[in-house]
Amino acid sequence: MTMKALTAVAAVMAAMSIPAMSIPAIAQDNKAEVIHWWTSGGESAAVKVFADQFGKAGGAWVDSAVAGGVNARTAAINRTIAGNPPAAMQFNTGKQFDELVEGGLLTDIDAVATANNWKANLPQALIDATTRQGKMFAAPVNIHGQNWLFYNKELLAKVGAKEPRNWDEAIEALDKIKASGAIPLAFSGAKNWERLLFNAVLVDKGGPAIWSAFWAKRDPAVLKSPELRKAADTYKKLKDYTDPGASSRVWNDATGLVIQGKAGMQIMGDWAKGEFSAAGKAPEKDYGCVILASGSHGFIFGGDVFAFPKLKDANAAKAQALLAKTMLDPAAQIEFSLKKGSLPARLDVDASRLDACAQKGMKYVLDKNQQLPSDVMLAPPAVWGAIEDVISQFWNTAMTSEQFIDKLAVAFKQNQ
Amino acid sequence: MSGAAAMQTMSPPGDAGGPRSARPVRMTPARWGLYAFLAITAAFFLLPLWVMVVTSLKTMNEIRLGAIIAPPLAPTLEAWAKAWSSACTGLACDGIRVGFWNSVKILVPSVFISILVGSMTGYALSFWRVPGANVLFTAMMIVAFIPYQVFIYPLVRVFAFIGLGQSIATIVIVHTIFGLPTMTLLFRNYFSSLPIELFKAARIDGASFYQIFFRIMMPMATPMIVVAVILQVTGIWNDFILGLVFAGRENLPMTVQLNNIVASVQGEREYNVDMAATMLTALLPLVVYFGSGRWFVRGIAAGAVKG
Amino acid sequence: MASPRMSSRASAYSALLPAFIVLAVVYIGSTVWTMWMSLTGSRMLPNNNFVGLRNYEILFSNDRWITSVHNLAFFGVLFVAISLALGFLLAVAIDQKVRSEDSWRSVYLYPYSMSFVVTGLVWQWLLNPTLGIQKLVRDMGFETFTFDWIAHAETVLYCLVIAGVWHAAGLVMAIMLAGLRGVDEDIWKAARVDGLPTWRVYASVVTPMLGASFATAGVLLSTSVVRLYDLSVAMTRGGPGIASEVPAKFVMDHLFERANISLATAAATSMLITVIAVVAPYMYWRTRVAARGRA
């Protein structure tokens, strides 16, 4: 009896350990498995634009969605290492896929880019962000503005504040909102949003030169500049305009406060428009959007790209090329942007159907002087991560601006 | 204080009372105290569930008002329906039901095999003196403390090397590996607490290693098997990252869909759907907890000793 | 007599074979790999550029890591002690022939079934001073009531303890209950014959017999403390600032999001060495005691 039980168990275990035959059939003609992290209702509608377009062009989109960029990238990278990569994987525009290029794991799409004249129609910063060793290794599909100020129009009018153009004016408005009893600055305490807010201040107070010295070169000299000092002081001052609930709140709820008129304004990327739309609020009517930049050049933009792992099958490579081409098709670009709330990566598209805030954003993107690549485009994850920790400590403790700058110096040095 | 007093009076000495007597227990003041303790603790445990339930029954407009504890003005089950069958989880908008059977397919063999291997290891380590056993147990206890995510990359490489791709078999092996230290600990400690005479008597009767294990030890370990099932069902059912990396895209567990509903970083949030999806996903472990109750009975050990 | 003994030993080895294989291939292999990685300059993908102890220098000059380690000790002591105490009391209470035992047990155990992604958010709401318990009590007319632990670096860890105990106490209860139900019926009968009050039986007879259950629960809780990650992510995201950061979150963030494998593995190796320093002498001592007991 015992032996029988054991034999049964052994049989089960043996059956289990035979490599399953369920190897995803992505190596067929026109199928392309895509790993991405767009899963909410609005994001899903946007993905559908790409999938449909790809289908029309004769491809078959095999969807592998995993919410949370970190999760999606972990799955994609581990599958690539295990020798079972997807046809395409999403990254944030930036340095996240550098080592995959260096490891020879990605296929370049330079031929597709040349054939479809991408280089003439994409912002230079996006071309730079996707080009390695002289070849394009990823398809940039959208642009997300990261330093938008969203505000409740009714509340600002009620307290007698106009739309601010820079942080000095914003602070005047914040004072007025504070006096009215509402929460001046809706905030959600998390390291990434603390960094995002710091960036919004740094751009206004420092301008492009300081921005690039800080994030791209991480030049110790920038830490001694009066601009950085001013940015640090202003940033710290903003803490006084947040409420006690800020540290334990997610960004969606902070946007909710602005929607409700319980708070005046919020700094967030343009994805926040999704929350406004879900609550039935219209841009530039119920809520305003503006970039705070004294020097009139400071639109921080990031976005998403798709990279294409090397596949053994020649047909699969064709499907990859087709996928890259359709994602940057002008019609797909504009439809995708409408659904996602982002801006098209291509500049040669008809922007007239975009929402009022996106049209404002388009003006910044079309102006070369306004384009500021985001921190994650300029610094590797390990580096911006270390700096983010310092920013977060500064925001949340009694640390002075001097101490903050000293700590930044250490982080710069450790990550040279 | 009152707790001790409560226990003293709840089953009067001399009476055939005590925890397991057949006679119904009278409601004395001390017994009221006992129920008060249980009720107050239950209130603490249930508060988050209350918030989840009421939130799942509200519309998003009502949720935005921010009264998280208030009952819904006009309760609706829409969010539950949406979470189950129409919430977007990527290109598809089919709710969390998609991965349910995959999760079951992963769960059943993983729980069975990990408990079998763990209990056998624990048994061999408790009654048998095997050279190297202490080193093995110590190593397992040490590994139990390490965040297992560190091992993902080397495991991926090992599996790729031996030609084991992503499949149900792979994920079952992975769950067995990561469950091994805990399961071993559970059973080793339990078996060690059993009287050694039991084991010696069986040996004198000529029972073999596996006979003692299957005929004597496992029946006696029923309450501990229940605990092991609770631990493994919960851990494996709620696992997300291992399933994502090792199961293969045909076999992704339900938690991947759950994560896709609740954890989009830049997407708009629907809290009512998030709550409903979370509770729906937790249903299976809850059923197991509730159903396992009848195994939490006394007297198995005593019966086995006599028999 | 010799031959069945031999075959039994072979059987014992066969039972331990899977464990030995896992030990050799996975645990030792992965651990050696982890330690080696911590000495390299690996970022997103592993490489073999030896950099000596540089990652450890960075690690131990990193405020976030130091805070994480302190937090772990503070959280761990409170969490384990409270969970053990509450779980034990609940098990004893439920063991008193209460009505509808299944329901009570399920109430205490259900938190364990739920993923922290959303329950962490619910706790965040409940503890948020502008949304949760503080607002509720103030709305009832107690204008000065304050419960804003989650908003302050000095108190945020108590919030993690609250949610952690909520999550884990039910499991402790189940383990204790399994232990209590394993106590021989004869012991209760003997105690009753002696006329001992029930609480005395629990205090001086039953509890000492639950040593193995306490050890099991204690070790399980301790491992969950060291591996604590989800709770901090879902409830406080390590904040305010770095006030509720924990070592496992440091490892995970650097392993994945920050693509800094070498720093992550340096942190993991430090955790490993600390655990070895605590567990190995303890196990050695246990073995010695056990050996003496047998002799």
What does this protein structure show overall?
- The complex is a heterotrimer of chains A (416), B (307) and C (295).
- With 416 residues, chain A is an alpha/beta fold.
- In chain A, 51% of the residues lie in helices and 15% in strands.
- Chain A folds into 2 domains: 31-145 and 302-373, D-Maltodextrin-Binding Protein, domain 2; 148-300 and 375-414, 3-Layer(aba) Sandwich (D-Maltodextrin-Binding Protein, domain 2), CATH 3.40.190.
- Chain A has helices at 2-17, 41-56, 69-81, 98-102, 110-115, 118-121, 124-130, 153-158, 167-180, 191-217, 226-238, 251-260, 273-278, 314-327, 330-340, 356-366, 375-378, 381-396, 401-414; strands at 31-36, 60-65, 88-92, 131-132, 135-136, 138-145, 148-152, 183-185, 263-268, 287-291, 299-307, 343-344, 371-373.
- In chain A, helix 2 (41-56) runs antiparallel to helix 15 (330-340), helix 11 crosses helix 19 and helix 18 (381-396) runs antiparallel to helix 19.
- Chain A is globular and about 65 Å long.
- Chain B is an all-alpha fold and 307 residues long.
- Chain B folds into 2 domains: 2-76, no CATH class; 98-306, MetI-like (MetI-like fold, Orthogonal Bundle), CATH 1.10.3720.10.
- Chain B contains 15 helices and no strands.
- Chain B has helices spanning 2-10, 29-56, 60-64, 78-85, 100-127, 133-143, 152-161, 168-192, 196-204, 209-220, 222-238, 241-246, 254-262, 271-291, 300-306.
- In chain B, helix 2 crosses helix 14 (271-291), helix 5 (100-127) runs parallel beside helix 8 and helix 6 packs across helix 8.
- Mean pLDDT of chain B is 85; it is low at 1-22 and 299-307.
- Chain C has 295 residues and is mainly alpha-helical.
- Chain C has a single domain (64-294), classed as MetI-like fold (Orthogonal Bundle).
- Chain C has helices spanning 2-37, 54-60, 63-94, 101-109, 116-127, 133-139, 156-181, 185-193, 198-209, 211-226, 230-235, 247-255, 261-294.
- Chain C starts with a helix and ends with a helix.
- At the B-C interface, helix 1, helix 2, helix 5, helix 6 and helix 7 of B face helix 1, helix 3, helix 4, helix 5 and helix 7 of C.
Gap from first CA to last CA of chain A: 67 Å
Number of strands of chain C: 0
In the CATH hierarchy, what is the class of the largest domain in chain A? Alpha Beta
Q: Give me the CATH architecture of the largest domain in chain A, please.
A: 3-Layer(aba) Sandwich
User: What coarse outline of chain A follows from CA principal-axis ratios?
Assistant: globular
What does the largest sheet of chain A look like?
Answer: 7 strands, mixed
Residue ranges of chain C: pLDDT <50 for 5 or more in a row? none
Rg of chain C, alpha carbons: 24 Å
Strand content of chain A is 5-15%
Oligomer state of the chains in this structure: heterotrimer
Beta-sheet strand percentage of chain C? under 5%
Roughly what is the average pLDDT of chain A, rounded to an integer? 90
Shape of chain C: flat
Low-pLDDT stretches of chain A are 9-27
